[in-house]
Amino acid sequence: MKIHQGFSPARVWGYLGFAALFFLVTWAWTIQIDRALGIPAFASGCVLFGILVFIALFSMRKRLSFLPLAPASRWFLLHSVGGFLVLFLFWLHTDGVGPKGFYGQLLTVLFYITSLSGMAGLVMEKFYPRQLTCSGAEVIYERIPGELAEIREQVESQVLNCTEETGSSTLAEHYLETLKWYFQKPRFFMSNIFGSHLSQHWVRQQCMILERFLDEKERAYLDRVYILAEKKRKIDFHYALQTLLKTWLLVHIPLAGAVMAMVFWHLILILVFFV
Questions:
Q1: Alpha-carbon dihedral sign for residues 8, 12, 17, 18
Q2: pLDDT 10s digits, 149-201
Q3: pLDDT of 9
């Protein structure tokens, strides 16, 4: 997911500057062409369609990674800049007010929803991989259920050994009443998404409350449980962020496909009835 890395801010601003210049030139050029042809918004629509096709090729590029078609990081950057550019071109094409009629309005709504999902994905692709790297753990998404099950088994083994060795059920009772809920599956999904430390505070508070009722031997077992809880907390963090990254693609790509299908049909109608 780190395909955006490797570009300096200067290069990013350079691409954005080129996009702004391209938009201004296109604006002036399309006005002249539309006046000459007598077909409103025809030239801006053609340019918009061409850029939409280009940014849609990014998905194909990822499937053809074995071909020497420039680095994926450069495609991702061009895809992102092109996404912002088509926003301005769409505004230019619709004259800022949006088309009339159900089909045009539906296309407009889908276009803006797709654009918003793309912006959200760009933010996630920019910040989430860095946060995952700084979490201090490397987790493969598909292995998360197995790793959580292994941690839960280790915790229950520590609790059972504590009960057998000390003859006290304090740790076991607290585990059944509170900690078992935490170790059953990934928790604190939304707080992890927003970078909150709620899960860390919750685990620490539960251990501090219990620690006052334990003797020295029981506290040693509690320390091991706390270490395992911290390990699970990092896995939960990976689960939340990686789930959102994967889910975003399942939303953005179908929306983009729907927009392209409607754009193709819109283009066919224009060519048949107006050209």
A1: positive
A2: 999 999 999 999 999 999 999 999 999 999 999 999 999 999 999 888 899 99
A3: 64
Dihedral over Cα of 261, 267, 270, 271: its sign: negative
Confidence of residue 78 (pLDDT cuts 50, 70, 90): confident
Distances from the Cα of 238 to the Cα of 149, 228, 245, angstroms:
16, 16, 10
Indicate the pTM of the whole model: 0.75
Q: How many CB atoms lie within 10 A of CB 138?
A: 9
**CA nearest neighbour of 238 among 133, 164, 93, 149:** 133
User: At a CB cut-off of 8 Å and minimum separation 6, what does 266 contact?
Assistant: 103, 104, 107
> What is the domain partition of the chain in residue ranges?
9-136+247-273, 141-242
CB atoms under 10 Å from CB of 237, counted, come to 25
Q: Which residue has the tokens 């270490």?
A: 227
